[in-house]
Amino acid sequence: MKFFTKKADLPPETAARVPKGQYLTEKWPVLHYGPVPTFDPRKWNLRVFGAVTNELQWSWDEVLQLDAEAKALVTADMHCVTTWSRLDQKWEGIPFSVIVEKAKPVHDARFVIAHSEHGFTANIPIEYCLRDDCLIALRANGEPLSAEHGRPARLVVPRLYAWKSAKWLRGIEFSKVDKPGFWEKNGYHNEGDPWKEQRYWGD
Length: 203
Hints:
five-stranded mixed beta sheet, about 200 residues, about 15% helix, 5 helices, alpha+beta, Sulfite Oxidase, Chain A, domain 2
């Protein structure tokens, strides 16, 4: 297969899985803004806070323990706002339902705000995170996440464009109000549904 294949050139059953305006790729392009963060397992932690009953903070060892106790395997198609799609991407890690169970968001928490290294954030309506395909990914395609793809942990929200699946995750905030993140403040659509072509403001 070529690096990118047009939707019109795909078999019908494959084309049906590729949203309008997307090209299929078997590779996994690397796209991000700013430098790739370094990972020091001795200093890294993951914080859960905001509109929750229990605020939490886990070390890397504690995250690995959570992963061992409640491991999720999700196979899902991945769609990037820059128009590439990658089918049957495999993710492994901690089901987002575990975060919900332990933090206990308040009843009117309506958004999840992913906090990443360098102060980047991404906002997601909570209903997408409550689906059974949302997870905190530690591995992709059977291997630990590479630095370029978000090592050590990445929020994965398969039903939205890939920028919502925030790399280099450091915090999960539950919020009663929406808080547009870096890309949303710089022209990207606030929700980002690939099947609705919600790429940019006004789409």
